[in-house]
Please model this.
Amino acid sequence: MAVLVMVSALSVVYVKYDSRLKFNQLQGEFREQDRLGVEWSRLQLEQHTWSSNNRIEKFAREKLNLQVPSAEQIIYLKVK
Amino acid sequence: MSFDNQHSQDHAAKVIVPELAGRRRFILACFMLVMCALIWRAIDLQVLNNAFLQKRGEAVYLRDIKLPAYRGKISDAEGHALAISAPVSSVWINPKQLDLAGRKVEFAKLLGLSVANLDKKLKKVGARRFVYLRRHMDPQVAEQIDAMQLSGVYLQKEYRRYYPDGEVAAHLVGFTNIDDEGQEGLELALNSQLKGVAGVERVLRDGKRRMVKHIDDIRAPIPGKDVQLSIDRRLQYLAYRELKVAVAQQQAKSGSLVMLDPTTGEVLAVANQPAFNPNDRSRLKPSHVRNRAFTDVFEPGSTMKPFTVAAGMESGLFNDKSIIDTNPGRMKVGRSQVRDHRNYGEIDLATLLLKSSNVASSKIAMTVEPEGFWNMLNKLGFGQPTRNGFPGEAHGKLVSYERWRPIERATLAFGYGMSTSVLQLAHAYSAIANDGLLQPVSLIKGLRAEPAERVMTAEVAIQIRAMLQGVVSKAGTAPRAQVQGYTVAGKTGTVKKFAKGGYSEDKYLGIFAGMVPANKPELVMVVLIDEPQAGDYYGGLVAAPVFSRIMSGAMRLMNIAPDNIAKPTVVAALDRGIQ
Model:
């Protein structure tokens, strides 16, 4: 009996310790998730700044000399 | 000690002075009283007020720090961000503890202030305990300040809102203030949803109130929810750009447009001029912030005529073959007169819309039951907000038919004596585009609050669309609304603005409301140019070209097949790429 009580008592101590450890890990993971979320929003922001319609249009027109084809230049194809 | 006691006891026992016995008892009683008081005080501190005092004690070394919640992202229908939060740091000081330790120059430089400016600021706030020195700093610079370890200088984590598209969607999205609270537009309307709940963290501090240890999170911050709007970033940009060019060219006071998907009621683009940059609001003018397309009302003028014709056809008194006699080009109603530009003679309904005849429209309105006419306009949403949740949305005005005088009934037929916003007008046109079914307006993708409502029969809607195709023909009022490769249905409006004491003779609104492709409309758009000054003011000349340019771009972007082209002659096979 005494042995069982001792074992149970020790296991309680161990489980408590373990749960605290796990909780700590969980908190750490949450913080990491937060950090990654923040990084994600920063990267999105960066992507959107680079891919803004304004910038793309300017680039296409000035650097690449692209233009919208006029009606006469468009040839419609009949798909077999 | 024991000797001393013995001695004094002996002494006391020996020398008993009777007249001093009372004094001795008095002193003893005093001691007893003091002891009682001390015991009471001990009980008071240890037992009765224990909880309170413990709290006060903890307050000295424990501190709860607010953790800001991440504000949800606002994105367009494709998931591209329109408003997004990024972490920044704010520097605050407690002037009572501030000790710059001779590094003032370095500190001021990192803050981006001159030393003189910093001194001035510090002098002003000497008596306070919490003062922001600089808000929303680059986190990397803030870390350098933190590394200086100055006493009385603290950092606070905050979020700053960025609008990657700047002006383009500014009116719809709105903006937040420096404390991350929505101030305008959808940022305000959806604030509670986007905001989230700030968390609280408990930390241990030393005697100098510096943070020593993180104890625990009392409440983790709950991030706000992301919101996906119905607008399309590419269409929005196209609409913004074309409207901006047109308003500048026409030297107009302002301009607005709304583009809707008639089959879902979703708003695809909203643009206004003048616009503002939500990322830099230092020179913000309130008049630039207003989302005119939603909040401002105007008299719709001739753009109402399709609905008058629809009411006439719904009543069964008119059909596409009806002939209305407009001779002699004017009509007396009560003491007033309704006039056409010239005498159109006997015309059918299609010609009514093509030539935009006021007299014929009035004749329809005077013939049909007022209740039926009103019902049609009311069901189309005139005189009531679209309830899309946008703050400050206009109601517009539609007087109840019970109070119509004859002249009001007649002028209502061509859009005077009532008012509507650009959004309401576009919404009403979407019923014609969607075969008579009116979908509720939605700004949020995939959100369908109410079922669609039938406001006119499909046959009437289809016939009206066919008639409206004539308007953009060479003979109509808006050939410049044509879109290469597509059929277009639409109606122009040129409205005299109501100024003090009557209708102005030199201030106009140019409007074009239309849909593409006319046979099976995918997009509905209303363009309004307010007070064009560059010469032209007809809706067909100032608004229709904007419509045409945006629509031809939109058709391409949305990948909608052209329905108005000659049969393709070049045959291609797709099985091994185009050959």
In short: Chain B touches chain A through 33 residues (CB under 8 Å).
